[in-house]
Amino acid sequence: MKIAKVETFFVSRFLVARITTEDGIQGIGESCYWSYPKAAEATIHGFSEALIGMEANDIEHIWSFLWRYNSAFRGNSIGGAISAIDMALWDIKGKRLQAPVWDLLGGKVRQKIRAIALGVGGDTPEECAEGAKKALENGFSALKFTPMPNNWAELSYTKMIGLAVEMVEAVRETVGSISKETVESFSLTFVFALSA
Predict the structure, then answer these.
(1) Bridge pairing between strands 26-30 and 142-145
(2) What DSSP letter does each residue of 23-86 carry, written as one string?
(3) What is the percentage of the chain residues whose pLDDT exceeds 70?
(4) Distance (Å, whole) CA 8 – CA 29
(5) Burial readout 166-186 (b: 16 or more C-beta within 10 A, e: otherwise)
(6) HSE-up of 142 (CA within 13 Å, CB side)?
(7) Among 102, 128, 175, 184, which residue's Cβ finds the most Cβ atoms within 10 Å?
């Protein structure tokens, strides 16, 4: 089952690779390089000539080959490209064996996990609060958001930090109290445990 075609496309701002084998099985994988996805896309296209004709089942060989391919220099675009290709190859293997990839990789780690609502945010405290309210109404028990408007780079630090505080306060008022253990602060990203 050899690789016949390597393609890329975007879903919103996220880069996806699609690999097709000679017998028509397709696998998809998402790049993890969100800052400059077009760099990862160019890297995937650069790898495609070498990938075509390789055995799609040899996932570990392909990963090692790509990591060492044509360069001693490795970075985010290469890692992002390889991650998308790797996921697509596992997707193909799962389809061929009619087994979920999580099972092929060793089975379940947990019996259940807590889902976190992402993409909750906005340009105003009110928009952030509305997003948090929708997450709560949709049954999420946690949310993650970055309290900064789209034009954050144009704001002074004082204005940006003040607005971030207002956004966090608005979300906190909407979702109720939060415990210290449920707030993660990294580069102004916050995780909240939601309560009714």
Answers:
(1) unpaired
(2) TS-EEEEE-S--SSHHHHHHHHHHHHHHHTTSBTT-HHHHHHHHHHTT-S---HHHHHHHHHHH
(3) 88
(4) 10
(5) ebbebbbebbeebeeeeeeee
(6) 14
(7) 128
Closest Cα to residue 85, out of 93, 75, 96, 74?
93
Going along the chain from its start, the domains and CATH numbers come out as: 3-104 (3.30.390.10), 125-193 (no CATH)
147 in Cβ contact with 164 (< 8 Å): yes
Cα of first residue to Cα of last residue in the chain, in angstroms, is: 52
- Residue whose entry in the numeric block shows the structure tokens 């998308």: 84
59-74: pLDDT as tens digits: 999 999 999 886 667 7
